[in-house]
């Protein structure tokens, strides 16, 4: 009778509710585990360059009568401290992005400026490897977002393209409109990424080849920043890659159209 009726209607609802609760608990545990891993990783990653700088400082003071050795140690100290600096900056970027919330600092951003600044950011690296960064940007494209975040995202993509490409190769950065969205694409002819790794590369501290990434000064945080920037700016990231042939990353952002009275900051 009525009991069966009630059971039929509430039963599935209740079990669905419980399922959601159970999932939530799992998710909470997952978030907690991710946080714990992150703290452990951060500590480890920060201690490595700090330890190296410390050892190098000791070596310098012991080698003060050998100018050549001092110069060599000093150069390594500089590269370790640059790595440390990048790491700290990326950890700060990531901490700010953690909630994937739309930034309160969203402004109108010119895509051509965004691309120029990102290419500029990797100029020293690209020039020292003889890599030409070729730009092809549709004029007058606008997006609406956090300038600093967007700059960090595009810069990270260009930085990676240069880092994982052979000397004398080309990196192409394009921006155009496709399906009503702005598509900023960074394409290289570098080492590429195996298909099985494509999802994992967006995880924090994940590197396909840790030894190589360390040699290039990689932190394993760049792409997770790109992913969170996309999420925080109503966008997405696409990746295509073929080992040995190259990689293409695309940051997709909603196109912004100016209102009559709106100004570009
Ligand atoms: P990293 O600082 O190590 O470059 P990222 O988060 O930016 O960290 O990238 C994660 C990993 O993805 C890299 O270590 C590298 O293995 C791979 N990767 C990223 N971009 C490229 C690229 N353009 N070509 C080849 N591999 C790449």
TrEMBL record:
Residues 41-257 form the Histidine kinase domain. One of its GO terms (molecular function) is ATP binding. It is found in: Cell membrane. It comes from the Bacteria. Keywords: ATP-binding, Kinase, Nucleotide-binding, Phosphoprotein, Transferase, Two-component regulatory system. Its main location: membrane. It catalyses: ATP + protein L-histidine = ADP + protein N-phospho-L-histidine. Its EC number is 2.7.13.3. This is Sensor-like histidine kinase SenX3. The chain holds residues 115 to 379 of 379 of the full protein.
């Amino acid at each position: 009778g009525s009991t069966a009726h009630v059971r039929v209607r509430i039963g599935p609802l209740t079990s669905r509710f419980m399922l959601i609760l159970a999932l939530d608990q799992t998710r909470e545990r997952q978030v907690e585990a991710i946080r714990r891993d992150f703290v452990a990783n951060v500590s480890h990653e920060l201690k490595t360059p700090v330890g190296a700088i410390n050892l190098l400082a000791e070596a310098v003071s012991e080698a003060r009568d050998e100018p050549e050795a001092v110069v060599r140690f000093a150069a390594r100290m500089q590269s370790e401290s640059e790595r440390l600096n990048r790491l700290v900056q990326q950890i700060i970027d990531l901490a700010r992005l953690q909630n994937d919330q739309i930034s309160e600092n969203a402004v109108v951003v010119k895509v051509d400026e965004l691309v120029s600044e990102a290419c500029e950011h990797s100029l020293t690296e690209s020039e020292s490897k003889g890599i030409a960064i070729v730009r092809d940007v549709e004029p007058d494209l606008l997006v609406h977002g956090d300038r600093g975040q967007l700059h960090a995202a595009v810069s990270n993509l260009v930085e990676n393209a240069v880092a994982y490409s052979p000397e004398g190769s080309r990196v192409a950065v394009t921006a155009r409109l496709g399906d009503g969205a702005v598509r900023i694409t960074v394409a290289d002819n570098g080492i590429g990424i195996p298909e099985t790794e494509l999802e994992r590369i967006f995880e924090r501290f994940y590197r396909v080849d840790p030894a190589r990434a360390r040699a290039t000064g990689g932190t394993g945080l760049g792409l997770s920043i790109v992913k969170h920037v996309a999420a925080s700016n109503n966008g997405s990231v696409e990746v295509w890659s073929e080992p040995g042939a190259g990689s293409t990353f695309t940051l997709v952002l909603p196109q912004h159209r100016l209102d009559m009275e709106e100004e570009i900051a």
